[in-house]
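Structure, all two chains, one model.
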Amino acid sequence: MESNRLTIHELQEKLRDGSITSVEVTESVYRRIASVEEKVHSYITLMEEYAIGQAREADRRIKEGNAGELTGIPIALKDILCTKGIRTTCGSRILENFIPPYDATIVRKLKDAGAVFVGKTNMDEFAMGSSTETSWFGITKNPWDLERIPGGSSGGSTAAVAADECIASLGTDTGGSIRQPAALCGAVGMKPTYGRVSRFGMVAFASSLDQIGPITKDVEDCAIMMNVISGHDINDSTSVAIEVPDYRKFISRDIGGWKVGIPREYFVEGIDPEIKAAANETIKTLEGLGAQCLEISLPHTEYCVAVYYIIAPSEASSNLARYDGVRYGFRAPGGEDLLDMYKKTRSSGFGAEVKRRIMLGTYSLSSGYYDAYYKKASQVRALIRGDFDNAFKECDVILTPTTSTPAFRIGEKVNDPLQMYLSDIFTISANLAGIPGISVPCGYTKGGLPMGIQFMANHFEEEKLLQIASSYERNSKIEKRRPDL
Amino acid sequence: MGFCPSPYRQEYTAVKITKKEVRHVAHLARLEFSEDEERKVTSQINTILMYMDILSRVDTAGIKPMMYAISLDNVFRDDTEKKSTGAEIALANAPDGNMGLFGVPKVIE
């Protein structure tokens, strides 16, 4: 088998016992990219020469007996993470030529762990989208059906994992941007607790919601990535200084006696029947493993999308004020004076969806509307968090489908922003409450599209998610398939 | 469509935001739109704001707004000297940074 198909933990063994080298793995990944990238378009920037250099260095480290957790493993980075000396676009024309002078903290952490960087992956512009259709650099396709979207905004990072164009990747999740594409592409994706992973050097979208997390081929790989990226960072004052457990220890444990909450508000009319059936099947599997599944209520669920699409655009309108054509990024020609230059630069530098959200955010923060929109939404957000606080008094984890439908068709929702927003319906609540969530594959539709199940836990309880997700993965007997590309 | 709360399904005539307001907000956000775009943006934002109306059903009297995802205290660090980014590096990405400073079009009339 080509080594690009292997997982991190499989490769760790082979690299350490000398049966394969990092250069061989990296070349295998690039052979795969050469044969499928034209169809899938996972990447904005590829860096083969750089990667081979890192792989040689990794092989040297391994020989010296000095390997870190990711030494020699080819990883893809969402193009929202600053990489020193390597273009970082955030999927936008306005950052088309931006070359960061520093590394994001987690990029440095991956480098220290010995990772090899395959490239920078495609994404919805400024991570605003659920389909990877709004990138200035073109659309990413779902490897399982090239006429469908891979999900978003981390669609490139997820498609790259699903198509074996890397071993694992990093994405970011503001309203579901890791978990939703993971579900639609048959990968594992985790959004950690807000504050678990440093955001320093991640291009900001909505600062109270953004979080970086791994996208992997299985749950054990997710635990390995979490071990590397978690922890406090002096450069991110919202990262939290509490101990990080060894997540890998939790993946072989069972879940007998656990209480799994099933929120009734997530199992209503409108959910795809095949997804509903898969979720019910998952519940049966967990009960077979000794877990007790009980119905719970998260009464403010129906308000999540409205709250999110006030808070996220408000924060975005403030964060994106920095793109003004002065210090870095694109500047439109022909500005008559400073104000005119700002307007021309921002109007041609941003795409339609980003401008729509800046407008929405500016409006909800503007004088006269602040109380009715931003303040009201922040109050309802407190109630949504309260729902979870109450739920976790009754149960260890919460189970929901990750998405309400399998991957939709390219172009299907791109002209109807509200319908697009509603595709995040099951994932947004975790970001609003700040809690961690994971999506794990739970089967395929009759048409062969992957489906995902989501688990959510209380703040800083990622280990519970990894424990139940891996227990489910081991016992669910879900066939391992690969997309036919 | 089971997840679409009622306002989205209704034939609504109410106007949440006018074209004039859209023009004002665009100015605040340092954006400009063509006539055509302006019409489209106004209609889309109207639809979205109509949907937001479902929040008026929630009684939030006395609820403290939640501004952060987790409870945070002020974070301080020691006031120690650190090396800063040099001018050359800071200017490397500037669209007009040739003279050792950030060049911009004229600011005063």
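Residues 1-57 of chain B form a domain with the Histone, subunit A fold (CATH 1.10.20).
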